[in-house]
Design a protein that fits this description.
2 copies of one chain form a homodimer.
Chain A: H1 5-15, H2 23-31, H3 39-51, E1 56-59, E2 65-68, E3 75-79, E4 85-88, H4 96-99, E5 104-117
Parallel strand pairs in A: 3-5
Antiparallel strand pairs in A: 1-2, 3-4
Helix pairs in contact in A: 1-2, 1-3, 2-3
The first copy, chain A, binds a DNA duplex (30 and 30 nucleotides) through helix 1 and helix 3.
DNA sequence: AACAGTAATAGTAATCATTACTATTTAGCG
DNA sequence: CGCTAAATAGTAATGATTACTATTACTGTT
């Protein structure tokens, strides 16, 4: 993987923010300062950065991939009202019984809690 | 919610299977016997059934919503090689520290383990 | 510093899952 | 049976993501 200015921009955009932006949001945040940046480039580099472990994809069910610049293992909360994603800094522990299955080998765990945030309480 | 024959078909198709089918897969499995069933009807009813808690959506990151006919709380394993989904029958426990946050109220938890199945081992 | 080779980009078109729309059908109640 | 609203079929539209291609720009070599 060869250096590219755009990839650095994109990585910084995700790392520099505590929200969990989608490709579209990253593109919007960079486009004003970099009018020639292409949305396809954002998509491709987010995928590359996720593959190389520099950012983490989050699949919340809103039909868009979000990315987290904090790769330290932790969980997320997703509000069913406003779709906001909140970091929960507890380290999920993969149970031994799951690690020792014959059927498959677990490499990572993703845990999402769903509910309602204070603003969206029913 | 009024009874419909189509909804019953769709519910049975998801409940009657241990795979975790997408709307498309449900449609395919029913279309031969029910040539007038519409894909839109499948999508709408899967969403309705999920909302009423009769089936559970799973977001694995493959950009398609899968559904699980088993609503008993449990986890899933997703193979990074073949994308197969395997049930893991351990009941995830929502940690007290998460249940007692002021910021939000957790209603459910979804945990997915990622790795490689035996067939896709590297 | 020019050169070559090849990965990366920009810009646009295409794809794929899902949702929206509308005329028609049907559940279910009086 | 007949009414009314909910549900469906079939098709069109949307929205996120990927594919494609000509051009640009890293990086190792002379």
């Amino acid at each position: 993987m060869r250096y590219s200015h755009q990839r650095e921009l994109i990585l910084d955009a995700v790392k520099g923010v505590k929200t969990h932006p989608t490709a579209d949001m990253v593109y919007d945040s960079l486009h004003a300062e970099n009018p020639h940046l292409s949305l396809g480039t954002v998509y491709r580099n987010l995928a590359l950065l996720a593959m190389s472990g520099e950012i983490t994809p989050i699949y919340t069910g809103d039909n868009k991939v979000h990315y987290d610049g904090d790769t330290d293992p932790h969980c997320h909360f997703v509000c069913k009202g406003c779709s906001k994603i909140i970091d929960i800094f507890i380290t999920p522990k993969i149970p031994d019984e799951v690690l020792h299955k014959e059927e498959f080998k677990v490499e990572e765990e993703k845990t999402i809690f769903y509910g309602r945030c204070r603003d969206c309480a029913v």
